[in-house]
Design a protein that fits this description.
- The structure is a single chain.
- The protein is of the alpha/beta class and 469 residues long.
- Helix content is 35%, strand content 17%.
- It is built from 18 helices and 19 strands.
Amino acid sequence: MARTFYQKLVDSHTIARLDEDNVLLYADLHLMNEYTSPQAFAGLDERGLKALMPGQNVATVSHIIPTRPDSIRVIQDPPSALQASNLKRNCDRHGIPLFDTNDALQGIEHVIAPEHGMIRPGMVVMCGDSHTTSYGALGALGFGIGTTEVEHVLATQTLVYRLAGNMRITIDGRLPAGTTSKDLVLMIISRIGAQGARGYVVEFRGSAIAGLSTEARFTLCNMAVEAGARGALIAPDQTAIDYVLARSPDLAANPEWRASALAYWQTLKSDEDAVFEAEHRFDASTLAPFVTWGTSPDQAIPVSGLVPAAEGMGVEKQSAERALGYTGLVPGMAIEGLAVDHVFIGSCTNGRIEDLRAVAEVVGDRKVAPGVRAMVVPGSGAVRAQAEAEGIAAKLLAAGFEWRKPGCSMCLAMNDDVLEPGSRCASTTNRNFEGRQGRGAITHLMSPAMAAAAAVTGTITDVRKLVAE
């Protein structure tokens, strides 16, 4: 029987079929952070259990950590400090590797895992964070789980998993200059809706996908969950394989293992006659930079577009009306030229080295506009060190940007980096919900290049105009 890529991954990791809709699924890797794991470890303690396979679990402190550029980071907030110390204590007790607060390689789980070679094609990866879908960029099935499920994975290295449907999104054409995979995914979400992929694992394919770098694919798969997807996959091609091999010294040292891995990775694709329950097609060649206008990632328009009126019926119309009220925008007004007072560049969506290179390229010799606070938060210690070695940090500091330590930072305001009520922020994060970056603050999602343009102009600006200067 013909199988989709997703079905092949599930088949290869199924321990037992529980019923028509559920299987017991094996986890190759389980990632943890400080805020979704405490109750799980407490549950193990109550049952007198230990982590079954500690070496296949990895933890990092990322969501609550301050990003101030201090030489030694100290978490001042008592509840947050307790979360971090509890994670260390639990990892020490169970023998689980931890990227702790002042580890030079500490960072966001979805940045550090692939950059250190933990993610390979054909894996199943679980984490108590919804953006675990990122790993589909390397042909691995990643998905977020809840705290109770974290406990189950720690105890058994398996999960009772409800099967998803199969959706294929084909994107052909070449991305025009000035556009990125962030613009691409915002466009897709705006077209299919915030629940458009609900219940599905999405497989991305097409010539536009083949032309993306691995880091651009991380951005695409990361935000698939914002359309409700339970997972995202891209069949591993040479681009993905080269990325993995460059971070896999064990395969380089063992030709037999390498040959076996390469042979297996070649099988990781959907069969030609595999059946998908849902399909979408898009043309990337006409893409423009996208910006969100509302309080959901699907409320997005091209930067040259006008804020739409609240249309439709029922919940959809009510959501749009509420979003317009919250953001203070008026139907028919241009999104370009809207003043911002804050710019945030970072997160598991856009905190990688390619993102920071794009920012530096746009900034050039320009300065941050008066009245704008612009922050750059690398996704990991390794990204930060590389950006400093390449001169990116020095250029951004000279331009007036803040150069911070790695962490989730202002993506979700669970730390010291919080926007003031009424602030309007150009952000490279993944969510623009009400209060996401601070109570009463307004978030406009966009690409790193667009955020850089906003930083140096003080307004939402079509980056293509700056690049053309």
